[in-house]
Amino acid sequence: MARDQIDAIVGEWRVQLPDIVGPSMELGKRVHRLAGRLQEAVRNETAALGLSPAEFDVLSALRRAGPPYALKPSELASGLLLTSGGISNVLRRLQQDGLIERAADTADARVAWVRLSAAGLATAEKVVRAVTGAQARLFSAADPALVTAAADRLRELLIALGDTAKED
């Protein structure tokens, strides 16, 4: 069987501290390595379109919400694991670029909405297609059945760790 870079790292640890080596170490290191490769692909595509990964995340979340492509800032922050300060900075930049609009709720003035502008909708779709294309290219060297099986097994693992979807 072919060896990857993680096999070499684990082999070194097996010599130095054999008691720390096990499946959880190998999985953690491989997931970390794969996440790095995916993040690199996202950074390359978003940078080419003049966006940061955080700006991509916000545009993507708004587009995924469906018409009218609007969410509350608190929903964006919690869904994207950003602080209120972090989401405020991202929203300010997107608004300055004309990609989002902010509006007060007509029923409750305490509630604000963030909504994709027409330019934001077009940009969101462009960047989502670019990023998913980069991800597809990254995985193109692997058998599609292997990619599907890996995704299914990782879902099972995440659920076992308590990372379940909220029921609607």
UniProtKB/TrEMBL annotation:
<dbReference type="InterPro" id="IPR039422">
    <property type="entry name" value="MarR/SlyA-like"/>
</dbReference>
<dbReference type="Pfam" id="PF12802">
    <property type="entry name" value="MarR_2"/>
</dbReference>
<dbReference type="InterPro" id="IPR036390">
    <property type="entry name" value="WH_DNA-bd_sf"/>
</dbReference>
<dbReference type="InterPro" id="IPR000835">
    <property type="entry name" value="HTH_MarR-typ"/>
</dbReference>
<dbReference type="GO" id="GO:0006950">
    <property type="term" value="P:response to stress"/>
</dbReference>
<dbReference type="GO" id="GO:0003700">
    <property type="term" value="F:DNA-binding transcription factor activity"/>
</dbReference>
<protein>
    <submittedName>
        <fullName>MarR family transcriptional regulator</fullName>
    </submittedName>
</protein>
<dbReference type="InterPro" id="IPR036388">
    <property type="entry name" value="WH-like_DNA-bd_sf"/>
</dbReference>
<feature type="domain" description="HTH marR-type">
    <location>
        <begin position="24"/>
        <end position="163"/>
    </location>
</feature>
